[in-house]
Structures are given as C-alpha cells and as structure tokens.
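Q: Sequence in, structure out?
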Amino acid sequence: MVGKTSRADKKIAYDRKLSELLDECTQILIVAADNVGSKQLQDIRRGLRGHSVVLMGKNTMMKRTVRVHSDKTGNKAFLSLIPLLVGNVGLIFTKGDLKEVSEEVAKYKVGAPARVGLVAPIDVVVPPGNTGLDPSQTSFFQVLNIPTKINKGTVEIITPVELIRKGEKVGSSEAALLAKLGIRPFSYGLVVLSVYENGSVFSPEVLNLTEDDLIEKFAAGISMATALSLAISYPTLAAAPHMFINAYKNVLAIAVATDYSFPQADKVKEYIADPSKFAVAITSVAAVDSGASAAPAAKEEEKNEEPAEESDEDMGFDLFE
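A: Exactly. Output:
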C-alpha cells in the first residue's frame, strides 16, 4: 500500500519546482487570481502549455523559496519579486513573448453573477426594456427605486439605472434582482499585475507600447534635453545645430547694424539697401511658374484646334461658275 505524501514532502517538492523555474525562466508575470475557479485555471494552464508554467502557492512559502534560492545562487535580482507577492497572486513563468502570453491569459475570462457582499469591480447598469417578469415582482424594483411600468402583463424598465457602482458591495436586493433578470455583470480571470524580466519589474501597460510609441517618447526626451541644454547654454549633440543657427543669427544682426560684414551678410545688406530687388526676385519666380503652367495649356490648345475647312476655290470650282 502506497502511503500518502506528507506535508513536508509536498513543501520540498514545491520548493524544488519553484527553484528550477527561477533558474530556467528570466520572465515572470505576477497575476491576481481572485475569484478564479479550478476549472478556469486548468483551461489557462492548457492554453499556455509548451512555453509557460502557472505556479500557485502560499505567499509565505514562495517568499521563503525566493530568499533561500537568492542566497544560494547569489542572484539578488530575485529579491525584487518578494514585495510583489501580496494577496491572492500566482506566478507565470514563460520563455515566450510576454505580450502574447498576457493576451492569451486575458482570453480565459468567465462571466459571474453578482454575489452578496462581493465588491463590484465595475459599474453595473440595468438597461431599459421588458424584463419578462410578472407584475407581482414589482417590489424588487420599488426597493431599488427603479422606474417601471406594466406593459402587456409584464414589468418593463423605463430608463437605464445604475444599480451598483464600482467599489461598492453587492447587496441582497441587487443580487436577487440581477439573478431574476439573468444578468451576470462581472467577469473574472487571471489579471497581470506586474512583469518581472531579468531583475527588472515594470507595469503590464509597457507590453502594449508599439514602436511608434517608443519613437514618440524618445523624440519627446530629445526635445526636453535640447531645451534644457539651450536654457543653460550647455552644448550637447541635440542642441548643437540650434546653437549654431542662433549664433549665426546674432552675428548677422551685428553685421546688419554695423559696418562689419562677411560673405553671407553681404547679400542681406544688399537687399536691405535696395528692397526693390525683392520684388524683382519674386516677379522672376512668378514668371517662371506661370510660364511653366502656360506651356502645357498652350500645347493642349494646339491639339484641340481643328483644321480650317477647305474652300471651294481650293477644290478648283465655285458655286457661280
């Protein structure tokens, strides 16, 4: 007869498995598992099979294993996991793409009824329309101040009603009404709280960033660095072009206001001395543009011009001969 595995043996096996996963995987998703059933968790494990492992357990045991393993290996990066092991959480060790894994986990959400005493994760709004309930059920609606009317022998809700607000506890009346209406307002699944990768911990929102987002943020950072460099007159690679242009403007302003000059300033001074040259230059450019646009029009006109009709004299006779 095979004896049952003792609690101590289970702890040793769990410690060994967690240590092996810490060595094998450098990417870990820390997920909240509130209101997730065993069948739902089984489906998630099946969906992630081949590249990821879902490991649940007591926080105290996970923290102890992480500390001991960190001391054994000398890898202090594992210690950044300990502050994240709070509440009903689990770990998903993966060698796949973090974004794809998080999206796969999000697929396994199931609808759930509003149970009494449960804190609502979202606002619950009862839509208007026929409920299919007989008039004897109007007491539920009256208790919750939901406007109704009797239509064809059934209760009809007149306007949409915000029944439960996010963060509030579900009361017995609200739960009973939603059950009668067949409304399952909540959905639950594993929710990614944090992401661990090679010792770094970051928010899961980072996984949704695209290349365009990164380029935009990089450009914004360069703009800020450039503005700071210009403000404190500290030369940097980003600010250098602006500094040269500003210096050129200053030197040009001095040359215009004084007798000092240089080749680039001579042309500016020439235009200032004789503003009519501006008009000549603009007129020349306009003439070139109009000539370029007129040429195709002239060619088109020549194409469309029909040949003149031949006279009778050209044919060798006329009408009066």
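The longest helix spans residues 276-304.
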